[in-house]
């Protein structure tokens, strides 16, 4: 019997400080929006080898304006190499920031599921299964969704509408899932 353990991030907890490499080569901390009190949607995707990731990333592009309207920035990241990211960009039509080189240790910090490639044709490294994290302006994890396969991900329209509801001060909506 195989025993796997994963550390899941809990809603309301401080988002881990993880530095990632942007396409430009600059370092950026996940969950730290450029706007001081802004929120950041961090999307962990499987990599270039995943056609469902390509589709999801391209679909996310159409939600950038509504997300900007509610002060939520987007950043996507995978464990791909820079060369894999550059090749993937040929299939992507996105304008949001994208990072590469997420390590297995960083994937474990995020609590995402990690898979090994089925063959060298798929990819050449362990990769993260999908994870979506929304970090609020206080650096706390406000929304989390992780999956162990590429087929289950949040529907983007519902997610964006939900974030608009959460961020509306008239709703006074707390971080959910914090019962201990």
From TrEMBL:
<protein>
    <submittedName>
        <fullName>Thioredoxin peroxidase</fullName>
    </submittedName>
</protein>
<dbReference type="GO" id="GO:0004601">
    <property type="term" value="F:peroxidase activity"/>
</dbReference>
<keyword id="KW-0560">Oxidoreductase</keyword>
<dbReference type="InterPro" id="IPR013766">
    <property type="entry name" value="Thioredoxin_domain"/>
</dbReference>
<dbReference type="InterPro" id="IPR036249">
    <property type="entry name" value="Thioredoxin-like_sf"/>
</dbReference>
<dbReference type="InterPro" id="IPR000866">
    <property type="entry name" value="AhpC/TSA"/>
</dbReference>
<feature type="domain" description="Thioredoxin">
    <location>
        <begin position="9"/>
        <end position="165"/>
    </location>
</feature>
<dbReference type="Pfam" id="PF00578">
    <property type="entry name" value="AhpC-TSA"/>
</dbReference>
<keyword id="KW-0575">Peroxidase</keyword>
